[in-house]
Amino acid sequence: MTDTADTFVLDPALRAMLMEASSATVSIQLLKRGLRFAAIGGVRPLNPLACRFVGPAYTLRFIPAREDLATPASIAQGDNPQRVAIEAIPPDAVLVIDAQRETRAGTLGDILVARLIARGVAGVVSDGAMRDIGELEKMPLPIFCNGVAAPPSFNFLLPVDIGRPIGCGGAAVFPGDIVVADSGGVVVIPRHLAAEVARDSVEQERLEVFIRRRVDRGHATPGLYPANDETRAAYQRWVAAGRPDEV
Amino acid sequence: MTDTADTFVLDPALRAMLMEASSATVSIQLLKRGLRFAAIGGVRPLNPLACRFVGPAYTLRFIPAREDLATPASIAQGDNPQRVAIEAIPPDAVLVIDAQRETRAGTLGDILVARLIARGVAGVVSDGAMRDIGELEKMPLPIFCNGVAAPPSFNFLLPVDIGRPIGCGGAAVFPGDIVVADSGGVVVIPRHLAAEVARDSVEQERLEVFIRRRVDRGHATPGLYPANDETRAAYQRWVAAGRPDEV
Amino acid sequence: MTDTADTFVLDPALRAMLMEASSATVSIQLLKRGLRFAAIGGVRPLNPLACRFVGPAYTLRFIPAREDLATPASIAQGDNPQRVAIEAIPPDAVLVIDAQRETRAGTLGDILVARLIARGVAGVVSDGAMRDIGELEKMPLPIFCNGVAAPPSFNFLLPVDIGRPIGCGGAAVFPGDIVVADSGGVVVIPRHLAAEVARDSVEQERLEVFIRRRVDRGHATPGLYPANDETRAAYQRWVAAGRPDEV
Amino acid sequence: MTDTADTFVLDPALRAMLMEASSATVSIQLLKRGLRFAAIGGVRPLNPLACRFVGPAYTLRFIPAREDLATPASIAQGDNPQRVAIEAIPPDAVLVIDAQRETRAGTLGDILVARLIARGVAGVVSDGAMRDIGELEKMPLPIFCNGVAAPPSFNFLLPVDIGRPIGCGGAAVFPGDIVVADSGGVVVIPRHLAAEVARDSVEQERLEVFIRRRVDRGHATPGLYPANDETRAAYQRWVAAGRPDEV
Amino acid sequence: MTDTADTFVLDPALRAMLMEASSATVSIQLLKRGLRFAAIGGVRPLNPLACRFVGPAYTLRFIPAREDLATPASIAQGDNPQRVAIEAIPPDAVLVIDAQRETRAGTLGDILVARLIARGVAGVVSDGAMRDIGELEKMPLPIFCNGVAAPPSFNFLLPVDIGRPIGCGGAAVFPGDIVVADSGGVVVIPRHLAAEVARDSVEQERLEVFIRRRVDRGHATPGLYPANDETRAAYQRWVAAGRPDEV
Amino acid sequence: MTDTADTFVLDPALRAMLMEASSATVSIQLLKRGLRFAAIGGVRPLNPLACRFVGPAYTLRFIPAREDLATPASIAQGDNPQRVAIEAIPPDAVLVIDAQRETRAGTLGDILVARLIARGVAGVVSDGAMRDIGELEKMPLPIFCNGVAAPPSFNFLLPVDIGRPIGCGGAAVFPGDIVVADSGGVVVIPRHLAAEVARDSVEQERLEVFIRRRVDRGHATPGLYPANDETRAAYQRWVAAGRPDEV
Asked: Is the dihedral of CA A161, A167, A173, A174 positive or negative?
């Protein structure tokens, strides 16, 4: 579980492939590999029209607040893990927050999100809530969260770790796992499976374009979805023909 | 509980009347007949601007997944109840899904919804989640569900029945019951009550137009809402006068 | 806890100051005074674009329905607390409803909301649901609630009190407490703290404008947010300079 | 809803009849009268072997704590409703507590329970938790609650009312309603129905003794349970014969 | 899914083997075969001292009540599925009830349980509640349930099916699946896996006796639990030696 | 947060004092110091008659399972944190487990508990479930947990950390914090407050013995509980007199 220099580096070609794959498709590919718990549950995008991202997970973990530690003064301390995370997360990484599904306090507000934007992160996923939602909805950083709350994180939460494996919305997240997010949800690909899942997801997306077009033209689903041998042959011909409009 | 040829036929005049009645009004009429459990709880429309429908319920039931049965291969089997339902549901019927309120897996995705559109169904209600939400929100079929999830239904669910009575969002739904949906919610009218509920709902809607106009003009609610004898007399005169703008 | 003539009067200057303070900022000020339970949880605005208000709380309390009392006829009775509240709430007050977080029945519908608009109330907060949501979303009254339901309140709820302390979404609300609402949530300021919280909130908002601008210009957060002495000095100079664009 | 001198007086003969009726039987009688919401949900007896009681409800209501009011000092104030209730509840009444189902703080501890015993109350029902459970389990007062918690009530709760209608475990409870408790649960009989429910419950209990004996002797349930005319005739003969062992 | 004459027959030798296997051990064997969802969640034995049973599942399914159908009169109807199940369940089978986790109404009471005892069933598992708990705790039939409730099933539930696959406490249950219950919980073995799971469970139990004895004698767990090759060899010698007290 | 050699050492005199203080009393003392979140919620003792302990917390943290890591083979790996914790926890310490309130899998079973007994730990607190409950209830180690489950921890959980701050049942727990448990619950004292909380708790217990005796003798609570000056003077005289039976 030790982070290395490469933990938060994602090959651009791999990122590009995954940017073509929906969270729904990636889920199927993970399920085919025996992984049923890979989706982060309960989170929704603040801005559904700007919620697409792919990147390696950088983790921040909260526990319930203890009143003598979770104080307004605590956030001024240089070793506060929340504040360290904001300045230490690498560009293009995804900040994934284990807030223990606490929705009565916001894990980030507009100032910290503005800083994350300045620092070039790819997105944020929190199984807790967000503050200053009116501001956040206007900002370009894709954020998935589990609710909205006026109070600050230290009202009910205390940050204790960065860079450790966490639970987020029912899914295990290790630093460097690849997070894929779109309006359909957020899924986490274990780092070692990212390349093969990306490859197969792209292929599945392509096949589903073919299937969807046939359905839109009135084909029934038996034999088509899922595809039987005959459909797969037709699909191969369609690909060979340059994927024309006609299916 | 046996389905007959008529189970999924809804008289067009009755449908037309119910299309004038809000789910809120129908709820009142059912409550007056002693039915307090008729609303499907927890569901919201994917597209609030296109969520109005009325139609007979066609039921599909899921149970929790068993991993040796709920596999990617299972959906290719000809007798998979989910897939049978998609091809067997009559036009103008409403697909009502008992997903046991499981929101970690999507009960339908864009391809199956595209097929339902091709087959002419009136709407979908699921007490589980939906997949491919970005696509679904752009499609014309009204869908009510309880959340959004990337994984497919067989990640956590197994379809086992069509055409049986189900629970959906806390309400009992029998095949052929009349489902009335709008942005205010989804209610289920027992088949044998549909005609009288429709009739009284239309009348109630008309009275509430009168009341609302008076309220908008500054009338206080005592005696007006609910209407006392005097208000009812004024309402009758207003109806007799052709329901003029002036109330 | 006895209401006096002044309970629902809010000084216009105080209201104006609080209209400049976000719910997030007020939460911080309350936390600094030891109050961590002041936010009303679980509620969202029906119309996020028109949800800003400040006003004294006027309370209405429901308990679970008893079928012989919670009937269609009961709302015609002159002493029904829900109906009394609608006609008795003072202008510019906020109707705060303890619905015991029951979301299967709507605590208000379009006709009663229309009447509240006519009567000049500032807003509504209910930890239960609302009816006729399609209508309500088009109406100008800011409403926060915990869900949407077709059935009327008396389907599952019975109104029993006005003007008593209540719980709403996990927060204590006393008549006359000051409710501050915006898209980020709803918080309740104990009456006796309203003036000092308003004063300090305005100051905090001003400082955060300065901080946010610096962050947007690429400043790192350590020393800036929260502000250390150096930042505070720079902020004072900025204020003295008339708060120019340059920070 | 105004309490009169008679609110908490229960006719001894009526109490004696209800002490023969189980909570299960009373539930059936209430359901026959259209009341489905009369059981207090989620509560269990601390001592299942000593949990039987019948008595009129005396109500105490809590709301969520506000830290400046819910302090250790607050319980020394003479008008603290929790403390007033302990000294004001009449003998033979049942203390019914609306704790908003908060189980993280105890609504009573051993000292207050000892005082309730000294004051002769019939029982306690709280939809919150209890403290000092080790002590309470040894004390003779029947107590139903929803959990166990070390912190005192004022950790998370604030008492605000006595003698008002409350919700308790999902049921409406009015002062003076008759509470019937045994190991099977707690049900609330509206005051005006107590006499007829008692009468019919006693009769139902008697019939069920007859039915149970027949079942124990190997009779099948059709026609026996529920009883058809033939079974009812046999039951009448059995009653006329002095309810012999033989059925 | 069609029941045959053999569906509810369990080979006595197989039953005997499984009576030696704990629910915990069976869970491990199912997990080794990829089944993680086989335990029925949330249920506890009414009588922990008499809760051990093994038998084929006989299923009963409830949906939410509809007030015009779920009436006191409904249970007198000859085709009421709850009542049919009571008289039709084969001896030595286990009645498994899908009550949709509704705990506000009891799925069985003492009279029906007395009849199940007379009919020789092996046990009952319900993900709902039970009535007349005081009586039931004294009766010899092992019952697992999710709570206690005074009201009868038809207060909130309506029986609709027997002999169909159901969900119970989050697990899929098919008629004829083998249910294994003890104080540690209830697990469901798919019929086709019962023989091999029984065989391997017995072996695992035996190994764990050896391991537990070593732990009780002070051995550390590394290499012992789980057993490495050396431990397995020692275990084999212990078995060959007739499993002496000395380990 | 770094553990030192002293982290898990508890002064015997301090332990002895805290063994005289109930969890309820400690909660009051923490609340007086501003700590309202110190109780571990939702946990109950497996054996209420043997559940008293005091000791420093040794923490183990789980996250949701990932199927390729949470396998039967994983527990044989030498660095599995659950297994490391079992062998590394110091004598007289308390194993406190953050299981994310997951109750569908057991965090410990009888073999690991037997090993903890051999290693001399003081107690176990898990906000998850336990396995082999029949065995555990007979074993002398005090265990608090949130449920019972047949499946092993790796069915739904993956251990990832020892010795880090965790959340357990809603409370923050740091390694070395002092855990106080009895039948009334489990509370966590921050290490730096242990001595003063112990001292004041012992004094409070003593005063409450005096108060309880007076209540048992028929004294009313006003002025007695909480104690006013007069009561405190009487208490001091009683202490000076050697705490006689007479109060």
From this structure: positive
Strands (E), A101-229: 123-126, 143-145, 157-162, 166-168, 171-173, 178-182, 185-189
Separation CA E98–CA E95 (nearest Å): 10
Q: What is the pTM of this model?
A: 0.97
**Residues pairing with B130 in the sheet:** B148
Buried-state track F226-240, b at ≥16 Cβ within 10 A, e below 16: bbeeebeeebeebee
* C172 within 8 A of C51, measured Cβ to Cβ: no
* Polymer length in residues for chain D: 247
C128 and C146 Cβ atoms separated by less than 8 Å: yes
Which residue type sits at B79?
A: D
Instruction: Give the mean model confidence (pLDDT) for residues D13-41.
Output: 97
Give chain F's mean pLDDT: 96
Taking CA–CA distances from E119, the nearest residue in chain D reads: D218
Establish if F190 touches chain D: CB-CB under 8 angstroms. Answer: no
Q: Are strands E171-173 and E166-168 parallel, antiparallel or unpaired?
A: antiparallel
| Residue C159, min C-alpha distance to chain A (Å) | 27
Which of the residues F66, F127, F161 would you substitute to probe the A interface, choosing the one with the greatest number of A C-beta atoms within 10 Å? Answer: F66
What is the residue whose two structure tokens read 């003479």?
D78
Nearest-angstrom CA–CA distance, C33 and D67? 9
Is the Cβ–Cβ distance between D202 and D39 less than 8 Å? Answer: no
Kindly report, residue by residue over D98-157, the tens digit of the pLDDT: 999 999 999 999 999 999 999 999 999 999 999 999 999 999 999 999 999 999 999 999
The string of pLDDT tens digits covering residues C192-236 is: 999 999 999 999 999 999 999 999 999 999 999 999 999 999 999
C-alpha distance from residue A206 to each of A20, A25, A186, A243 (Å): 10, 11, 21, 9
Q: What is the pLDDT of residues B23-78, one digit of tens each?
A: 999 999 999 999 999 999 999 999 998 899 999 999 999 999 999 999 998 888 88
Residues 197 through 226 of chain E touching chain F, CB cutoff 8 Å: 208, 211-212, 215-216, 218, 220-222, 225-226
Whether residue A64 contacts residue A158, with contact meaning beta carbons closer than 8 Å, is answered with: yes
10-residue mean pLDDT series, chain A (247 residues): 74 97 98 98 94 98 97 91 97 98 98 98 98 94 98 98 98 98 98 98 97 97 96 97 92
DSSP state at residue A220:
-
| 8 Å CB contact between D115 and F220 | yes
Q: Measuring CA to CA, how many Å separate B124 from each of A81, B3, B120, E100? A: 46, 20, 11, 22
Q: Cβ of A166 under 8 Å from any chain F Cβ?
A: yes
Whole-angstrom distance, CA of residue C136 vs CA of residue D237? 64
| Chain D CA closest to residue E133 | D184
Q: Quick one: closest CA in A to F35, which residue?
A: A67
Residues 6 or more apart in contact with residue E101 via CB below 8 angstroms:
E42, E127, E128, E146, E169
Any CB–CB contact under 8 A between F184 and chain A? no
Rounded-to-10 torsion of CA E23, E25, E26, E30: 130
For F157, nearest residue in chain A (alpha carbons): A172
Residue D55 has pLDDT above 50, yes or no: yes
Q: How far apart are CA A141 and CA A86, in angstroms?
A: 14
User: Any alpha helices (H) in chain D, and if so which ranges?
Assistant: 12-18, 23-32, 81-88, 110-118, 133-136, 194-216, 229-240
For residue E36, which of F158, F146, F45 has the smallest C-alpha distance?
F158
In angstroms, rounded to a whole number, what is the distance separating the alpha carbons of residues E58 and E147? 21
CA distance D28 to D44: 20
Q: Do chains D and F touch (3 or more CB pairs under 8 A)?
A: yes
In whole angstroms, what separates CA D216 from the centre of its chain? 30
